[in-house]
Design goal:
With 272 residues, this protein is of the alpha/beta class. The chain contains ten helices and twelve strands. The chain is 38% helix and 22% strand. The structure holds 2'-monophosphoadenosine-5'-diphosphate. The site of 2'-monophosphoadenosine-5'-diphosphate has 15 residues, from helix 6.
Length: 272
Amino acid sequence: MTRYAVMGDPIAQSKSPQIHSQFANLTKQNVAYEKLRVEAHEFPARVNAFFNGGGGGLNVTVPHKEDAFALADTASPRAALAKAANTLGMDVAGKLWADNTDGIGLVRDLENNNHCTIKDKNILILGAGGAARGAMAELIHRQPASLTIMNRTTSRAEALRDDFTGEFPIGVRELNQPNTVLFDLVINATSMGLQNQTLELSSELFAAKFTAYDMMYGATDTAFMLWAKSIKADLVLDGLGMLVEQAAESFALWRGVRPHTKDVILKLRNEL
Ligand code: ATR
């Protein structure tokens, strides 16, 4: 049996062990997956100890994603663009590799699970922290018509935009500043939901039919989802599917087999 784990702090809330044990059953892989509370100062030592002890791979969550990227010997292009990693593994030569599956998780949930295309759409991202950064590269690859960032602190949005200069023209707008086009898709990548808050954006920013996606999720609608429904969004989604899809991508990277996600998402939804 090969050991896997997720490292974070806090970690009690993590659903990754449930998700990966279902993946293991579905794909008949002999793996064990646990959650480990790891404080920032001990992160490098714990990662090394895990792999030296024969561990097969790690997921990494708050607050270690930047440190995971920095610690690795090699990084995928998408992890390098995000400057953060949520997946670590060790190659046959003993080199630690880093990848970031958050963006592809978001895009797969939107496109495959919810039939929401990104190509040619005008997209608004709320937030300019790690969650927004992780999503950018994958959204750009899908060739949206435009990509705009709004953030409480506009200078952070500008810094994020500048990191992607040359990849794609990205707009930055102050909160509620009108845009030249109406948005078809708004993605909440802020951590406001943790405080049960949301940004009250004007309905005039959005197309007649638009989709609202919250990277957060919960047993009931998040504050962002309630806001989106109040201004009559056509489709309102939470981030549970993204959570399962990013896990599936990590699992595929480690095991070379891709689990079906539909039933795993349904089961998790029922258990919320
Ligand atoms: P993460 O890695 O989860 O993205 P982060 O880097 O701390 O975490 O970023 C959190 C994001 O949520 C930021 O965009 C932050 O806005 P600022 O850049 O202005 O700090 C946003 N955010 C968090 N709490 C917020 C609040 N109460 N109101 C508005 N934006 C908030």
